[in-house]
Amino acid sequence: MQRSIVTAAAQMGPIARSDTRHQVVDRLIALLHEAHKRGAELVVFPELTLTTFFPRWYLTDPSEIDVFFESSMPGPDTQRLFDEARRLGVGFYLGYAELSEEDGGRHRFNTSVLVDRAGRLVGKYRKIHLPGYDAPQPGRDSQHLEKYYFEPGNLGFPVWRTMGAVMGMCICNDRRWPETYRVLALQGVEMVLVGYNTPDDHTGNFDFDSLTGFHSQLSVQAGAYQNSIWVVATAKAGLEEGSNLIGQSMIVAPSGQVVAMATSTGDEVVTARCDLDMATLYRQTIFNLARHRQPQHYGLIVERKGPVPPPEDD
Ligand code: CDV
What we know:
It is built from ten helices and 15 strands.
């Protein structure tokens, strides 16, 4: 019998700083209904779904910062999303800013949770590859201060057997790193869920920034193909508080083919039936990791401290 799961990428358009959680959760529930109407069993929402992408600002007043964070999930504002998803029998991935009390202190993480169709919290992931800086950069209108607001995730890259598949999560910048997919693939992951907020001016170099959409797509397609996995990648998109975020939410097959992609930069649902046996086919042939991978020859990756220096002029 074919194993498959109908999956939705539920892209969100911009969220203003003044938008309330209630307004945002209303939008999430509308997207959930749309996805369910189209047969989706699993919905992937973006990174930091509940608020505007605040790492673009340098805020110093803790009370101003705290409003972007959730200290419980579900919490008072998000409970009705969990309830509605359970009522519809739809699982979901949700990214949010997490404030955690652990090891005797307060910790902030860029986090996602995976919830199954019965409304059970299956797993939590905390973003490992935090881009940007830990202090504001002079001369830039729009900052990228994830290293200032968040600690690197301390939960590794776990996988979960749930909803008939082996699933893993990552968040935004993680999708550009081959290690993310490979660590998950080595644990047998079949589907990777990822939310993102990607400003189209993130380096300030036009030659580079003009390729932002291409690089996002390239990273997801390469990760999917080279690791025989489905990747569902969902954007928060559009002109948000003066910053343009790319869209292109997409569902990519283990063949590397894009099977669904958003065409707008607003709230939009795209769906695909993801055939999990397709992941098995690629994993048993071209990317049979046990048969073809050569980790004994990869010592260089862990042993060398840095790159070989360029040749000196004679
Ligand atoms: N939120 C992100 O992690 N954004 C990064 C940008 C800054 C490059 C990304 O990789 O899309």
